[in-house]
Fold this sequence. Notes:
alpha/beta; Rossmann fold; two-stranded parallel ribbon; binds nicotinamide-adenine-dinucleotide
Amino acid sequence: MRILVTGGAGFIGSHVVEHFHRDHEVVVLDDLRTGRLRNLEGLRHRLVQGSILDEGALADASAGADLVFHLAAMVSVPESVSQPAACESLNVTGTARVLAAARGAGATKVVLASSAAIYGDNPMVPKLETMAPEPRSPYAATKLAGERLLAEAADGALSTTSLRLFNVFGPRQDPASAYAAAVPIFIRKALSGETITVYGDGGQTRDFIYVKDIVGALVHVASRPDVLGSFNVGYGASMTISELAAEILRLTGSSSSVIHLPVRPGDVRHSLASADKLRGTGWRPSHTLAEGLVRTVEWYRSVRE
Ligand SMILES: NC(=O)c1ccc[n+]([C@@H]2O[C@H](COP(=O)([O-])OP(=O)(O)OC[C@H]3O[C@@H](n4cnc5c(N)ncnc54)[C@H](O)[C@@H]3O)[C@@H](O)[C@H]2O)c1
C-alpha cells in the first residue's frame, strides 16, 4: 500500500511512519513548521517538503495514495489565538485540499487527527461524542470544522474518520517548544535535576495516552471502511498533574523539587475521555499509562546520553 502521512515529521506523525515503514510505501508531506527531520531518521519514507496548502506539493505527495493520515496542522492553541486567519487557512482550507487530493488519488480512507479541545470548558466528564462541541479557540473551532469536512466528504468511494485525541505523550515529543506539554517538560527537568513547575494546586486531571496507542487507533480506523464519524481516543482514566510529577520523579530517580505557580488562564480543570464508542468498533489499547511512561522516560534518558 502507499500511505500518505501529512505532518509525518512531527511527533505523532513520525510514529505513524514508524508503524508502516517496513512493509509499505510511506510518503511524508511536511513543511517542517514544527516537525523535525531527525524524527524520521532511520525510517524508510519519501519526504515531500512542502505545505498541504501548496497544490503542487500535495499532488506530488498524494499521487497513488491508498490511505491518508492527515496530521499536519497549526497545533498550538495560543498561536491559533494570535494568528486565527493562518490557523483557519492551515487547519480548514488545508484539510479541504487534503480531502480533494485524496479523492483525486483514489484513496479509500482519510483519517484526521482531531482534538479533545473541541469540547471546550464544559466541566462534564467523561467527554462523550454525543456532547455538543464548545470550541473555545481558533484551534478547537478549526479542528471541528475539519471533522465536518471529513464527514461531508465520506461516500461509497472514500471513507473518513476523525479521532479526537486527548493528551498524547511519548518519544520525540518536543519539550523545547514554547507550547510543550507537561510530560516531556517534567521528564526533561527531572532528568537534569531542575525544578518542576506545576500551575495551580496540581489537582487538575488529564487523560494521558501513550503515542503508540494513538497510532494503534489511527491504524485501526484506517483499516475499517465502515468506521465513519468522530471518536474520542484516550485511556478513559485520569491522572492529576501532581501525580504525574511524582511518578516521573520516581521513574527518573530524580530529586528535583516541585513548585507551584498560579493557575494559567484558560486551563481546563478536568479532561477525561470516554473511548467506549471507539472500543465498540473493536479498538483496544496495547499499553498501560504506566508502561507508556516507563518507555518514554527510557527514550528521553537515551537521547541525553
Ligand atoms: N499531541 C497531542 O497531544 C495532540 C492532541 C490532540 C490533537 N493532536 C493533533 O495531532 C496532530 C499531530 O500533532 P503533534 O503533537 O504530532 O504535533 P507536531 O507539531 O509534532 O506535528 C505537526 C506536524 O505538521 C507539520 N505541518 C504543520 N503545518 C504544515 C503544513 N502547512 N504543511 C505540511 N506540514 C505541516 C509540522 O511541521 C509537524 O511536523 C495535529 O493535527 C494535532 O492537532 C495532537
